[in-house]
Write a structure and sequence with these properties.
Length: about 500
Amino acid sequence: MLSDLLSALDLSGHPRLTNPGDTKGVATVSSPTTGAPLAGVKLDDADSYERTVAASAAAFKAWREVPAPVRGQVVRAIGDEFRRHKDALGDLVSLEVGKIRSEGRGEVQETIDIADFAVGLSRQLYGLTMPSERAHHTMKEQWLPLGPVGVISAFNFPNAVWAWNAMLAAVCGDTTIWKPSLLAPLTAIASHAIADRVATSMGHPGVFSLVIGTDDVVGERLVADPRIPLISATGSCRMGRRVGQVVAQRFGRALLELGGNNAAIVHHDADLAMAIPAIVFSAVGTAGQRCTTTRRLIVHERIADDVCKRLAAAYKTIRIGDPLADGTLVGPLINARAVEGFLHAVESARAQGGSVLVGGQRARVSGLSGHFVEPTIIRCNKPIPISCEETFAPILYVFTYSDIQHAIAMNNEVPQGLSSAVFSDSLRIAEAFLSPSGSGSDCGIANVNAGTSGAEIGGAFGGEKETGGGRESGSDSWKAYMRRQTSTINWGTQVRLAQGIRFD
Ligand code: UN1
């Protein structure tokens, strides 16, 4: 399977790939589905890191001279190449991180979408003009390329999250240096190879770079590197806290997309025929390993028993198994540690008064010894300490409420602030959740009658509080990848000072 995918992606004989083993300087990638080793990946050391960053910094100086719409044409060709390789790359995602086939390919579609978005953007990096208070003066601001951008990505979106950053950065005139998760380097090697092949064949080597290594050797160097003005990092709050501190120390910019502990509120007037499937996808899709996964369900007390019954019935039909097999809806967790985290959370919830309605155990899948767990629903009526933590697994805690303001307060009562949703047919409930005063959801994403996960690329993606505050992907997120310059131009014949100051 792997060798077929590698040859479909023109990666056979790639210098990074080797046999799995314990040799120093090689990471072994294992299948989360079978537990068996898939491949070995050669890691960067301090010297190769240095060569890569120096090359990226040099490439930046050439790339920023290429007009933005011409940069857009390179990104257009990259998007086309991802279209051609969508199925093979999507299946590689499934093989490496255990996403079901449709979600693996969906992730590559997200990359294609952001490439399209970036192409359009390449003609729309608009600045502003402002009226000057001084006669014969003009004021304007423009957006300029920033420099090499460091991209740190997590295992769960091993292709698309890099693309959100790399495609935008490319049209903005930046080069990118990508450090992928050591749990998903194969997808990174393939994704980077596609982008780099296209850019190099169009005369722009070095726009896309890849460094693969441990936090000690590569991660710490990257975040502390003064040649890299922006670090865009996706991962845990613990990782983001470290990145934020190191980058701030050197006055760099950090764009952080960290943990989420997302809730959906279900009001008594919600259309349950629509709400239940939306909640199930958000809660168990990607086996609960999206940062946007619904982890908490806040249900009106009048319908709580009914909602739990319907969810339990839906969960019982979910097929757990080989992510590449037809009909599978839930694949494995990424590794044995993730299974331990799942079991620990279930045990803590029980100890804290939660009752497990569905699941709660490892799942046995015949013929496969991977890291499978049962999608789990835990009813606790009100928040418990473990439900305030993000466990990267398919666990849904159910609470009840009678007053919508209390439901919103529960939505907001966690350290993270990424995504949120309300299901209701009432305008009042929906608008209270989105109140322009800010008294509704405190998250970066707040949806109505749509689940917490599965955002489109066109919106700005990110969240508040311990989620880190960054925004990636659509809307005007591109501004994070450029620097702003304000200019005052005196086209008259006299010196005129602002604020009416006289200095004769
Ligand atoms: C992530 O889990 O880090 O909104 C990103 C979503 C996807 C992106 C998730 N489009 O669920």
